[in-house]
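Troubleshooting log. The previous structure file for this entry was overwritten by mistake, so regenerating from the original sequence record. Sequence copied from the archived sheet and checked twice against the printout by T.R.
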Amino acid sequence: MRAPIARLCVVYFAVEFANNCEVVENVGDVGMIRADARLLQGQCLAQQPFRRGMVATRLSLLDALHDRPEIMDIWHRHGSIVNGHTMGAHSKTMNADDRLELFFSQSLDGFFFMMIDEPVVWDDSIDKERVLDYVFEHQRMTKVNDAMLAQYGATRESFLGTTPKDLFRHDLAHGRRVWREFFDRGRLHIETDERRVDGAPIRIEGDYLCFYDEAGRITGHFGIQRDVTERERASQALRQYNRRLQVLHDIHLDILGTRSPQQIAEATLRHLQELIPCRRASVAVFDLPRGTGTIIASWAMGEAQGEGQAVDGAVVPIESFGVREELQAGLVGSLRSLGPSHHLTDTLAASGSSTMHVPLLADADLIGVLNVTSSDEQTFERRSIEIAQEVASTLAVAMRQAQLRERVERYANELEDRVMARTADLERSENRLAAILNALPDLVFVVNGEGRYVEILTSREDLLYRAAEEMKGRRFHDILPAPVADAHLRLVQQTLETRTTQTLEYSLHVLAGERWFEGRTGLLGVLVDGHPAVAFIARDVTDRKRAEELESQNIYLREEISVERSYGEVVGESTAMRKVFKAIGMVADTESTVLVLGETGTGKELTARAIHNLSRRRHGVMVKVNCAALPASLAESELFGHERGAFTGAVQQKKGRFELAHNGTIFLDEVGELSADVQVKLLRVLQEQEFERLGSTRPTKVSVRVIAATNRNLEEEVTRGRFRSDLFYRLNIFPIHLPALRERKPDVPLLATHFAREFARRMGKPVRGIEGNAMARLTTYEWPGNVRELANVLERAVILCDGPTILEAHLGVIGRDRRESGTFPTLEEVERQHIMRALTETGGVLAGPQGAAKLLGMRRSTVWSRMKKLGIQPIHE
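Regenerated output below.
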């Protein structure tokens, strides 16, 4: 019986191999094989009416195998016949079993056998779920061909022995349902979702046939299957595309039946969820001059019609939907929801979901945005974004047409009112208009494109640079200083070119003295001498500028006062400090730049304040700048200020620290930490006493004295290329070296007494002095943290002291005494001291490459949080 069955399989595999590969070499007589195949197919089809095509051939073969279970003996006994033969002339001697093995291995379809360790009974008399438990553990893959291994991406060694539990590990319940149906029917044609060895999903179409023994028990099964993943994907994509076209067609039909932009937006949103899985959606129209967007329609999942209108009519900044330039370029917004300052956060963008903002562009004009919020926490797929862009394109065109219709109707209704208003304006007499203009406090000039004064109207001739008769008919450059004339001419030319209002602030020494003006231009609606002209209105804003300057200084001073200093003025009577006092007295009354050098905690800021208080600028403000605390990206803005719109977030003009210190002193603490770019601009200020705000092209003059300080060796920094040599020489005009506290031991008792009394006064305690042993201990200590460390120790001692005298016990553990003490510090104390030491080492600088956070290997926010928890106050010199 074996030879006919083997012959049957050989014939089937020969047909499969010949059909797929077109050439069958060294397999015998191909014509004979094809003839046998036709005979076999005819016999099988005559016995059972199966489906036509490949599936019919497969099932015919499976029926034959089902009727001949002894074929398994052939497979078990000839597991690797092909490998035992060589191709070529010897192939003609291959028997049917050898050919069966050859075609089994060469077929493009996957062939396999799965056998159960022990046959199982499958009928209504047994518990089928328990049998399935056994089968899923003990039915194993016993033979596979290469096509089968390719489908699963597996090696033969790893795949042989695979169980149903392994195949359906991703969905055991589904696998058990398939196996149960298969065993119930005895054979099965089905498509299933399975997984490759690497976890990638695949779609499998297969035909499967059970094997039974003489007792009717299931011993295993045989299967033929192929990978139809790509076919399924193509079919699904086609269905989705057809659905997409249908929905877009429905949207077009709904739009044709509407007129207003709001109705068009609502009609679009009704169909949007059919194209893109989303939870919420809305449409906003933009008012670009005002920089705002208005919500005209919204939709939310699960809300009845009319309930999702909570945000309709709301007005929000355009920046809430993304960067305006990117939206104008047609780029989808960066999937961010509206900020916390707007009540639309919970309605437009659900928490935990992604939101995309798709620009509405009509004739390259940005007219609005389509906002879509995903239905889960996943970001949108590329296909969803493309669909949203296609919908937005259709929506934008329809809304632009509706807007144009509304404008035409509105303009038609307003035309008569505008004509009447214009007629009323023309009826006013020229004399009355001139009288009104003369009564205004502003200066009104009419100038032409050359910058020539055509008309001058004002009642404040003391605010003119020259008499009106002298200025009329002459150009800016004939009258005004060159820089002011250049700025005026540029403003007029920009007004003529752009036909928009321009503004300018400038100072000018007029007949009434030095004054500040705000100039505003507008294009005249009539020609003057046949040429366009500009109305230039200048308003005296001197009082406002002075008030702003005083307010800026007042704010800075309030901020400085709110930060209470850790200790008082410079104290000392040692020889080293007397040299410092002498140097301060020599340089204070000059305008020279001073460089204060010294270790952290030696009192560099107090020294700078002493120089300022003794200088001729003592009535001005001293502005302090901690250069180490300035982020590199913001240092230029903080020092020199910025104009409105200079960068993202610059919503208004801001004065820099140099401008705040005008007619005063600026103290640049830790100047060695400045970046190379800022060093260049600082050098210009020191040399020319002028700078340009960020985003401005007009230089700003200042009169500022500079005092710089650092704990670094700037000469070494110059040698290493980290600090500009020209800036070092400009700062090092008059250096003052502050000695470390260990170099001025005679000052320790004086400083300790000063700090004890100062802290006692602040805390309301009756402390008046320090006991001798305590003073001796303070005097012998080396004080690596200098005066700041001494102040911290005395502050703690005053807190612990209950009487009039500070005792040695109140000093606690300082310096090396901490390691010699028998007490074991708590973890909190060790952490507090470690952070305080890092702050002492960095001079109180928390952030930056030289900050305490970097030294501790922690984030700045983490260090700050631990400082607040442990009660550690920031260090200020």
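Residues 749 and 775 are 7 Å apart (CA to CA). Archived copy saved in two places this time.
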